[in-house]
């Protein structure tokens, strides 16, 4: 078994009317104060080798309970030590619609089930040197808490001895995936600015739209990303990963889309989180959620400004 979990207090959220007003104000503020601003940049480390990825301690930062199994289930069985930081609780605050759709009576029940599922799946790794941290940000709200998540991650990184931090690509698959990526990149930028040897950022695969179709388990092409390192799963390892997936019963309809024959990683490219990750519609814009790419980038601008990572004007 892995070590005890750490739980933050849940962050409050406003009502639907407040959110709509807030979005309108965001547009006005962004156009008035942030046009022409750019994200600060750091050294490009995408060319660094990650050949020893499976043999050194790592920090894994994911958006939801189950993302760590999707992207790193096999890798977690091999790492000598790892800390998994799960940013959100996986339960949208949408009037219990998501909870009911998953078969739960309340958001609280759904949140608890998702946490229990993560614990059960990680136990199957058989790795006694895993520790788990829950940040407990509401699902679909990570970008609105990105500054505080960044500061938490900086503290986790300072206390750990990680050569790598593994997280999502910035690819427009899910707003929380992109927010986790932003927080990791921002944390490493701020640590480097303070002469701390920040870990190398490594990406795992999730999902995104590619040529109008959903792509699972492979990367959105990026000309500045590092070469892809692939771990092929044998028959026994594939069966183990399916058992890990089966622990996440509330997500079975999503998980059935993901392949279990390989896990892929690459050194992260430097991203401009104020620009869209790719042209055209983003995956999460097709879900009719309360956030689109433009609203996400306005929230990202505000978070980066609070962190002192905007330049220009």
Task: Kindly describe this structure.
The protein is α/β, with parallel strands linked by helices. It has a single domain (3-8, 41-311), classed as LmbE-like (Rossmann fold, 3-Layer(aba) Sandwich). Helices cover 37% and strands 20% of the residues. It is built from nine helices and twelve strands. It has helices at residues 16-34, 67-78, 97-101, 107-123, 146-159, 175-193, 235-247, 252-255, 293-306; strands spanning 3-7, 38-39, 58-62, 82-92, 130-139, 164-167, 200-204, 207-210, 213-216, 229-232, 262-267, 310-311. The chain has an eight-stranded mixed sheet, sandwiched between helices. Strands 2-12 form a two-stranded antiparallel ribbon. Strand 6, helix 6 and strand 7 form a beta-alpha-beta unit. Helix 5 crosses helix 6 (175-193). The N and C termini lie far apart (52 Å). The model is unreliable at 1-14 (pLDDT under 50).
Q: Which key phrases capture this entry?
A:
313 residues, alpha/beta, Rossmann fold, eight-stranded mixed beta sheet, two-stranded antiparallel ribbon, 37% helix, disordered N terminus
What topology does this entry show?
Elements: E1 3-7, H1 16-34, E2 38-39, E3 58-62, H2 67-78, E4 82-92, H3 97-101, H4 107-123, E5 130-139, H5 146-159, E6 164-167, H6 175-193, E7 200-204, E8 207-210, E9 213-216, E10 229-232, H7 235-247, H8 252-255, E11 262-267, H9 293-306, E12 310-311
Count structural domains.
Answer: 1
User: Between the first and last Cα atoms, what is the distance in angstroms?
Assistant: 52 Å
- CATH level 1 class label: Alpha Beta
The fourth-level CATH homologous superfamily is LmbE-like
| Sequence of secondary-structure elements | EHEEHEHHEHEHEEEEHHEHE
Strand line-up of the largest beta sheet: 1-5-4-3-6-7-11-10
Chain-averaged pLDDT: 91
Structural class, from secondary structure content?
A: alpha/beta
The CATH topology label is Rossmann fold
What overall form do the CA principal axes indicate? Answer: globular
The rounded Rg comes to: 18 Å
> Could you give a short account of the major beta sheet?
8 strands, mixed
Name the beta content range: 15-25%
Instruction: Kindly state the percentage of residues in helix.
Output: 25-40%
Number of helices, counting only DSSP H or I runs of 4 residues or more? 9
CATH architecture classification: 3-Layer(aba) Sandwich
Unreliable residue runs? 1-14
Annotation, overall tally of beta strands: 12
